[in-house]
C-alpha cells in the first residue's frame, strides 16, 4: 500500500525521514510502516500550497466547479466505505460499526460544505445616503491542519472540507499514531483532479511537522484539534507572524442527572456518554453528577450495566467497546486510575487492563467508574481520555451548576430532567459550547462545534465553521464622489 506524502499533486517519499511502525491496538501487531516527513518536506508542502493559492487557481475557481469537486470526493469516499472503515478500525481500534459511521460522516461533511458555498454570502449596508458598504468573505490563504488520532479521518475532514470550500489551500498533518486513512483520502484527491498544490499531506511527528506548520510565515492559519497542553506550544510558535489559530481542545464534560429523570434512561445515556469510543472523545461525559436522593440507585444500575459491556477487538461484531489507541495512551489512562485511588476515590467498577484470552496483547481497559470523589481531585479536574468516569453527588440545582462549571474546560455538558423550566435554566448556566437536554453526543453539521474556556477558540462545522476559514473585508463605495476639502487648498 502506498504510504507516502502528497506534495504539489505528486506522491513523495521522504528522503531522510524516520521509519515509523503503525500498530494495531487490538493485538499490538505492526500493520504498516510509514516514513515521517522532515522539515524540508513540510517546507515543500507549504510552498506548494502557497504558490497554488497565490496563482489563484483554487480560490478563483467558480463555486460551481469547486462544489462539484467536493461532491465527487464525497462520492468516492462512499464508494470505498468498507475499505476505509476497515483501515480505520485496524489503525485506531474502534469497532467496525463505529468506523463505518465515521466514514459516512466524512462523505456527508464534504457534501454539506459543497452545498453551502452555493448560497449567498456577505452583507450590504447603506450607512449614509451616498455610501454603499458591502461586506465580503475571502479565503485566508494557506491553512495548516493538525489533527488527533481519535477520529483520524473525520477530524481531518471537518477541517479539510471547510477550508477547501472557503477557497483555501491546505497542508494536512494527521496524527503520527493513525495516519493511514489520511493517505487513502489523498488518493481520492489525486484521482479527483484537484489542481496541483491545493491539497498536501505530510505525515510525521508533532514536534517537527506540526511545529513547522505553526512556525512558518507562509502559513496564514493553523487549525488544530488535540490536547490543551500541545496547543500552548502551537500558540507560541504561531505568534511569529500572528497567524490565525482555530482550536478544538479537550474537555471534562458534566452530565447532570436530576431525581425526576427515569433512572434507566439516565443510566443508558450516561454509559453512552462516557464509554462510546472507549472514552476517547473530546466531548465524553466524563463527570456524572447525580442528585442525592437517587445517587445510590443510579450507581448500582450504572455499575451493573457497565460491567456487562463487551470489550474486544473492532472486527468482532459482538464488540461494544474497543481498545485504547496505543500502549502509551493506555499507560496514561492506567496511571490516572492509580492516581484516583491514591487520591482516595473508590472504584465502583473496572480499574484494570483486560488480560482475558485473546485480549492480552491489545490495549484494553475495563469500563471504569469512581465514586467518593472530591471536586479538587485530579481525576475530576483533568482529561483522562479513556473509559473512566467519576460519579459525584449534588444536593440542589445551585450545587449541580457549581460542580459542573468547576473545571478549566468548557467543551460540552448535558442535563437530564423532566422539568422543562429547570432544564433550560440549568443548561443556560453551563459554561460550554455544546450542550444537550435529555440526550448526549448528538451532533449535526448544521450546528457549530467548539468550546468555552480552555476547550478551544473558534468553532468547527456549520456556516460558522466555514466562516472560520475566511477573512472579512468591507468595501465602501461612494456613489457621488465630491471634493471634501479636509485640508484647505
Ligand atoms: P495531541 O495534542 O497529542 O496531538 C494532536 C496533534 O498535534 C497530533 O497530530 C500531534 O502530532 C500534533 N502535535 C503534537 N505536538 C505538536 C507541536 N509541538 N506542534 C504542532 N503539532 C503538534 O492530541 P491527541 O493525543 O492526538 O488527541 C487527543 C486530544 O485531542 C484530547 O485532548 C481530545 O480532547 C482532543 N480532541 C478535541 C476535539 C474537539 O473537537 N474539541 C476532538 C477530538 C480530540
Helicity range: 25-40%
Bound molecules: nicotinamide-adenine-dinucleotide
Largest beta sheet, briefly?
A: 7 strands, mixed
Low-confidence stretches: none
Strand order of the largest sheet: 14-15-16-13-12-18-19
What's the β-strand tally? 22
Q: Which structural class do you get from the secondary structure elements? A: alpha/beta
Question: What's the tally of helices?
Answer: 15
Q: Mean of the pLDDT scores?
A: 97
Q: What portion of the residues fall into strands of 2 or more residues?
A: 15-25%
> What would the principal axes of the Cα set say about the shape?
globular
Rounded radius of gyration (Å)? 24 Å
Task: Write a concise synopsis of the structure shown.
The chain is an alpha/beta fold. It has helices at 39-55, 63-79, 81-92, 96-116, 152-165, 180-192, 206-215, 228-238, 263-275, 295-306, 327-343, 378-381, 397-404, 420-429, 462-467, and strands at 5-7, 10-12, 19-24, 29-35, 123-128, 131-139, 142-146, 169-173, 199-201, 221-225, 244-248, 254-257, 287-291, 346-349, 368-371, 388-394, 409-410, 412-416, 434-437, 452-453, 456-457, 470-478.
Q: Could you characterize the architecture of this molecule?
A:
The chain is α/β, with parallel strands linked by helices. Helices cover 38% and strands 21% of the residues. The protein is built from 15 helices and 22 strands. The strands form six sheets. A seven-stranded mixed sheet has the order 14-15-16-13-12-18-19, sandwiched between helices. A six-stranded mixed sheet has the order 9-8-7-10-11-21, sandwiched between helices. The protein has a three-stranded antiparallel sheet with strand order 5-6-22, with no helix packed on it. Helix 2 crosses helix 6 and helix 3 packs across helix 4. The longest helix is centred in the N-terminal third of the chain and has 21 residues. The radius of gyration is 24 Å and the shape is globular. The mean pLDDT is 97. Bound molecules: nicotinamide-adenine-dinucleotide (NAD). Nicotinamide-adenine-dinucleotide (NAD) binds next to helix 7 and helix 8. Nicotinamide-adenine-dinucleotide binds next to helix 7 and helix 8.
Amino acid at each position: 500500500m502506498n504510504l507516502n506524502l502528497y506534495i504539489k499533486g505528486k506522491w513523495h517519499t521522504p528522503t531522510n525521514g524516520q521509519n515509523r511502525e503503525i500498530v494495531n491496538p487490538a493485538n499490538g501487531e505492526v500493520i504498516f510502516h510509514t516514513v515521517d516527513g522532515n522539515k524540508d518536506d513540510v517546507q515543500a508542502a507549504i510552498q506548494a500550497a502557497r504558490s497554488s493559492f497565490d496563482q489563484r487557481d483554487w480560490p478563483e475557481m467558480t463555486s460551481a466547479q469547486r462544489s462539484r469537486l467536493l461532491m465527487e470526493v464525497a462520492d468516492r469516499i462512499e464508494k470505498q466505505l468498507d475499505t476505509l472503515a476497515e483501515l480505520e478500525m485496524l489503525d485506531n481500534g474502534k469497532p467496525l460499526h463505529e468506523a463505518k459511521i465515521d466514514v459516512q460522516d466524512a462523505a456527508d461533511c464534504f457534501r454539506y460544505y459543497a452545498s453551502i458555498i452555493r448560497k449567498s454570502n456577505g452583507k450590504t449596508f447603506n450607512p449614509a445616503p451616498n455610501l454603499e458598504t458591502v461586506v465580503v468573505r475571502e479565503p485566508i490563504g494557506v491553512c495548516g491542519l493538525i489533527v488527533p488520532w481519535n477520529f483520524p479521518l473525520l477530524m481531518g475532514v471537518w477541517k479539510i472540507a471547510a477550508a477547501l470550500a472557503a477557497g483555501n489551500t491546505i497542508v494536512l498533518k494527521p496524527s503520527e499514531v493513525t495516519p493511514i486513512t489520511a493517505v487513502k483520502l489523498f488518493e481520492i484527491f489525486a484521482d479527483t483532479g484537484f489542481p496541483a498544490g491545493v491539497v498536501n499531506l505530510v505525515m510525521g511527528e508533532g514536534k517537527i511537522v506540526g511545529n513547522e506548520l505553526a512556525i512558518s510565515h507562509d502559513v496564514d492559519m493553523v487549525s488544530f484539534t488535540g490536547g490543551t497542553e500541545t496547543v500552548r506550544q502551537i500558540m507560541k510558535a504561531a505568534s511569529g507572524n500572528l497567524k490565525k489559530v482555530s482550536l478544538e481542545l479537550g474537555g471534562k464534560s458534566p452530565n447532570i442527572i436530576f431525581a425526576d429523570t427515569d433512572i434507566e434512561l439516565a443510566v443508558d445515556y450516561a454509559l453512552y456518554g462516557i464509554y462510546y469510543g472507549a472514552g476517547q472523545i473530546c466531548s465524553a461525559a466524563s463527570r456524572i453528577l447525580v442528585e442525592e436522593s437517587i445517587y445510590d440507585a443510579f450507581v448500582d444500575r450504572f455499575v451493573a450495566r457497565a460491567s456487562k459491556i463487551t470489550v474486544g477487538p473492532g472486527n468482532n461484531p459482538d464488540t461494544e467497546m474497543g481498545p485504547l489507541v496505543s500502549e502509551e495512551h493506555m499507560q496514561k489512562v492506567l496511571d490516572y486510575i492509580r492516581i484516583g485511588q491514591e487520591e482516595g476515590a473508590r472504584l465502583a467498577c473496572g480499574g484494570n487492563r483486560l488480560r482475558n484470552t485473546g485480549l492480552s496483547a491489545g490495549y484494553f481497559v475495563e469500563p471504569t467508574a469512581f465514586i467518593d470523589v472530591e471536586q479538587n481531585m485530579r481525576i475530576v479536574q483533568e482529561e483522562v481520555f479513556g473509559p473512566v468516569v467519576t460519579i459525584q453527588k449534588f444536593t440542589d440545582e445551585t450545587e449541580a451548576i457549581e460542580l459542573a462549571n468547576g473545571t478549566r474546560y468548557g467543551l460540552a455538558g448535558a442535563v437530564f430532567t423532566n422539568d422543562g423550566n429547570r432544564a433550560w435554566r440549568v443548561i443556560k448556566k453551563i459554561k460550554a459550547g455544546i450542550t444537550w437536554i435529555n440526550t448526549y453526543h448528538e451532533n449535526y453539521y448544521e450546528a457549530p462545534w467548539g468550546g468555552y474556556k480552555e476547550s478551544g477558540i473558534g468553532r468547527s462545522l456549520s456556516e460558522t465553521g466555514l466562516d472560520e476559514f475566511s477573512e472579512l473585508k468591507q468595501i465602501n463605495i461612494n456613489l457621488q464622489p465630491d471634493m471634501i476639502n479636509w485640508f484647505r487648498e
